[in-house]
Design a protein that fits this description.
By secondary structure, the chain is an alpha/beta fold. The protein contains 21 helices and 13 strands. Strands 3-2-1-4-5-6 form a six-stranded parallel beta sheet, sandwiched between helices. Strands 7, 8, 9 and 10 form a four-stranded antiparallel beta sheet that branches. A three-stranded antiparallel beta sheet has the order 11-12-13. Strand 7 and strand 8 form a beta hairpin. It is globular, with a radius of gyration of 21 Å.
Amino acid sequence: MSKVACIGGGGVRTPLVVFGINECARELGTDEIVLYDPDLERARMMVALGRAVVQREGGSLRVREAAFLEDAVEGADFVLSSIRVGGIAARTSDERTAIVHGYPGQETTGPAGMAMALRTVPVAVEQASAVHRLAPKAWLINFTNPAGLITQAILQHTEVRAVGICDTPSEMLHRIAVALGASPSEVRCDYIGLNHLGWVRRIELRGKDVTSEVLANDQLLDQLHSGPLFDHELIRSLRLIPSEYLYFYYSRRRALANQKARGGTRGTEIGKLNHQLFRRLGTLLAANDGQGALAAYIEYLNVRSGTYMMLESTSEDEFRKDTSQGEDDPFRAASGYHRIALDVMKALRGKIARRVIVNVRNQGAIAEIDANDVVEVPCSICDGAITPEPCGTLPAAVRGLVLAAKEYERATIEAAMTESRNMARTAMLLNPAIGEWEPSEGLLRDFSFGK
């Protein structure tokens, strides 16, 4: 038997991972999950919730915290990394700074996304080096945002076996299947791009190409995103279905206007929800009410899910009218954070290939991108190997955007590893969501970065 380690195990989505590991413990050959977080108190709360999950579901999975990274990862078969350097306070500050300088405040794109990357890259690389030293056969599954950029930094600067994951593509494919009234096995989608910068370019239903029918159907298009993000004519002009984070490229003025009108950002919302959650958990866990704490946690997840991407894409009236809670039991959702992680882990352990969209070295998958650059594409995963599908050339409508974004990612990694302020300014110039020189000086000053 073996163990799974979670770096950033005090994060609020950790109990979902515990649920998934417990559900597949025998298939994975896992009997223990170890949570490490610099905030040990948060890690202990997540351990208590994880144990409540195992108690509710049945199983023998052991859940414990580790005070030190080394204890958590040594000898692990899988290491999940989902860290947030600086916590939710740093995210909120980054997003507000972006808005002050005239850009939408979003934690993985634009100025705030770059600030997060600059802060995170050195830490993620250091932790990945420790994983390789203490668990040389382990797979590091990176969920830390910005996931593609961080995965590239890890692969570029360490020898660890790593793959980046994100639930955005799988959620998108799930929505397409639901909209078509089909099971996931009946739908096949061609997907191409980078993390938080990807598109579905072909949809097959039971072997038939239905892309044109989907693009022509407003009712179907309405169901493909978490909010009213994209004008249907925009989608039809591209002949591509964009993943949701393209909203912050295609509708920057609208996103910024909505954030200014609402007086906040998603980070602000999450900070408030997290504060309420941990206050309730503290009370319930102090009373040894693990199942009550689990109920409070499920309520939190449903509220959080129901407000996702709504602040940026809707007016105040639309937000109040359209916001609804998510699924009753988020642990059993068909897609999401824990499902993509488990899909990858089971495929790496299994003998039958699974097709999963992940962040990996390109290796020729996208013709215009260097072999060692990380892309987000469908891959065949089986028995310890991950092989990206050949995707051909980028669609003309998005080629420039993808290539510019990849140049930005390379420059940002260099800036983060060297602490070069000038390279960080260059990265902002290259970033398609910024693309200006003069604002970079003030942004970096307010982000407190560089020499």
